[in-house]
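Shapes recur. Our protein:

. . .
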Amino acid sequence: MSQLKAEIVAVGTELLLGQIANTNAQWLSEQIANYGINVFYHGVVGDNLERVKSSFELASARSDIIFVTGGLGPTDDDLTREAFQALTNKILKEDQSSINKITNYFEKNSRQMTPNNRKQALVFDDAIVLPNSAGMAPGMIVDHNNAIWVFMPGVPNEMKAITSEHVIPYLKKTLQLNTVIQSRMLRFIGIGESQLEHELKSLIDAQENPTIAPLAFDGEVAIRVTAKAETNQKADELINNTTNKIFELVGSHFYGYDQETIEKKVYELLKNNNLTIATAESLTGGRFADSIVSISGASDVFMGGVVAYSAKTKETMLGVSLDTLSTYGTVSSNCAEEMAQNVKRKLDADIGISFTGIAGPDSVEGKPSGTVFIGIYGPSNQSLVKEFHFQGNRDGIRIRSVKKGFELLRNHLIQL
């Protein structure tokens, strides 16, 4: 069963226009992966009969299980049934239990039922009808040309209800599914994607089960470890063994699993060490402070912050000396050091962190765009200032600066 190829086709022009996100495909993929079914393709097609039919033809030629979401409503642009009928010549009929539910709904709510609502009760004559506990239109399971077709409404809560209550139990029983697929995300910071892949090359080249997939994000990278096994416990064992091998090679850069964030990890380190922090930001414009404040419980560790964008504000609000500003400039290690020291003192925090630099696009004080200085002044009154040269557009440089600040702060805290 692990070799079954599954495909998800979402029907709806609103998806193509970006008016709503295709969260159904993401959720469905996660659910069926738990039972060892591999999703090979995601597709989105607009409300056009010929294009929906063509999408179904393509899916029929390459997939064993096709999940179709959307296009089962009452209006003229709901064309999923019509497209599949054009492909297969199957007969549509009105499902009595579904039409009873629809008519009862309108009667109960004292509303007039328009004729097009009967369309929602149409099912194929050889279909397994899947009751919709969250809405009107039922789902269907149809066998055609050695493929299993699963039709469900596009409304997420209706699709999820039908999947959980009917589709998964049907697939488990019919396909005798005895394989699970589990994944774990390992998150790293302070190492680039190419370097991470280089360090893990021996493991990646030899991978079979589990598989190892590097992923890149702004300012950090991750490894997704995915295992197939007969039980969740065996899959966990496979993932643990591979994770340990990864940690032997790049464990010093690891900071968390799955949905854990570097921001939350730094918050936990501050709280566990009973430390507070204050921020002095120039080019980042308060983004670092905002990232901390976004964490529930931030008041336990965050004293406050100063956005000192101009040289005058650095002088008047943070007390950066005129000598430093005139001799070294605002984009300098000296300025970053004084910003961190003074915000720590002014806001009575245990740690001060500062950001000053050039987000671009123009150079400043003879220094190119992307030049950034980050300073940390810690509990022992020792200064740490690092210079960086980031690539990218203005926003990208600011994002990388904030992420690098969390990296430096984490490294500082774990050494206390």
Remarks:
- The first helix runs from residue 13 to 16.
- The chain has three domains: 5-175, 180-257, 262-414.
- The CA atoms of residues 266 and 329 lie 30 Å apart.
- The chain has a mean pLDDT of 95.
